[in-house]
């Protein structure tokens, strides 16, 4: 890519400019940020965040989701992106994918009429009986997960988001999810390791010219959706094959480092890609070890996660030991060789920005604060996150930005954990950048180049299922998801599922080949990750309205990415 433009002043307006909503933060505009003492960072980010500004930003996030212009009716109206510009991530080859993926976002935003209309449209028009080859991973997280989430919302007796019930609903979405999962099952057949093929034809099974290589995340991040389906149906098949794949991958980790690679041969178990990192090819594998445990309470899932997290800290983490004290570089997670732990390259990718959110779930909030700050600094420089960023060259290696949600997700979860208004400022910066640089005629477009700000004729469905949802929830403090007393978990595609007893009770006692039945159940109130108790309260109350990261460390990170 061409060299980046001269870096802007470190603490001038955010990348998208602060004039849109920022006036509410200035003296007389209802905010207290400027009244804070201290340096420029404290003046910009500290202090109360005015309720009226939060409300406007919440409404702006809703507007991003529902679409521009009069009469926009949500995700089913997004038809003016070119239908010829479809890539391998498209599961259905038409707008149905976007419509399905966005169902629970409508519910979270309390839009019952559009939710009910969209559900009926899915039931009436979507069929999986088609000669279409799909990615097993994408079909599972985008379509299967959304169908299950919407089914759970419809059948919830409490109806916390308003009346989302469907008249004469007869579990159609659950039946559709079952039908899709059955069509994905051939991917798990005829593999010597139990690790599934990456693609399957919905009518014909595994294509005869299929590759025998798949990525760790793609093969090992199916357990949440398949497990929910099994437990709703009382049929162990789906959870069994997904869990077998996870255990097969886990058994292939390095004896030396305990790390996994990113690409494996499903027949031989040989690692084709030996890179171990937290981004593309690996990310959601770790996420689902923890989330499977949270949902199903199987102790072995937590044990695998704790081992994986320990090995990540030992071999991938660089920089000073503590986030907010001491000397040295800020913490950063790099890509290493799975067998030796040696550095393989000097780039990180935007998918890794999910990891601070995962650290919040296990209570490692301080470390999450530092890693999040690094990705936010990159966002401030470009007004987006390049797909790959070279931290040594301080420049993008792969310069496009497909409206990914990971930084927003971590921002939202860090705000929920700390209630620090800093993260509301971050969310405002992100929202402004999206409005300024990605807005298109009938939606929001992928940035082809984060420096040049050129656009592509494409809007991924995860923009609606995740990016808009997390932005909306960040600014909607009173959302029923926060207030209802229900406990929810987000899937890796941002779909909400309730954490309740029915998913902790399997109706079977299947044992995987060569195993003893040593599975232990954990009660919901006993959920504790390995380092949860020691880290969860490390952010003291008195820091709630101070910067989550000391300004000298924030300045250090800005310098590292070329902002100053």
- The average pLDDT value, as a whole number, equals 87
**How many E strands?**
18
Strand content: 5-15%
Determine the fraction of residues in helical runs and give it as a percent range: 40-55%
Number of helices: 20
Basic shape: globular
Q: Low-confidence stretches at least 5 residues in length (pLDDT < 50)?
A: 1-20, 26-37, 69-73, 76-90, 528-537
The biggest beta sheet reads: 3 strands, antiparallel
Sheet with most strands: strand arrangement: 3-4-5
Query: How big is the Rg?
Result: 23 Å
Main location: endoplasmic reticulum
Subcellular location: Endoplasmic reticulum membrane
Pfam families: Glyco_hydro_47
Cofactor: Ca(2+)
Write a brief caption for the model.
The chain has 564 residues and is mostly helical.
What does this structure look like?
Strands 3-4-5 form a three-stranded antiparallel β-sheet. A three-stranded antiparallel β-sheet has the order 10-11-12, with no helix packed on it. A two-stranded antiparallel sheet has the order 1-2. The longest helix has 20 residues, at 136-155. It has helices spanning 40-45, 51-66, 96-101, 103-108, 112-125, 136-155, 172-184, 216-220, 223-233, 237-251, 283-296, 299-315, 355-361, 365-382, 406-418, 422-437, 462-475, 480-483, 532-535, 551-560, and strands at 133-135, 199-201, 213-215, 263-265, 271-273, 275-276, 317-318, 332-333, 336-337, 347-349, 388-390, 395-398, 439-440, 443-444, 447-449, 454-455, 488-490, 496-498. It has a domain at 248-345. By secondary structure, the protein is mainly α. It is built from 20 helices and 18 strands.
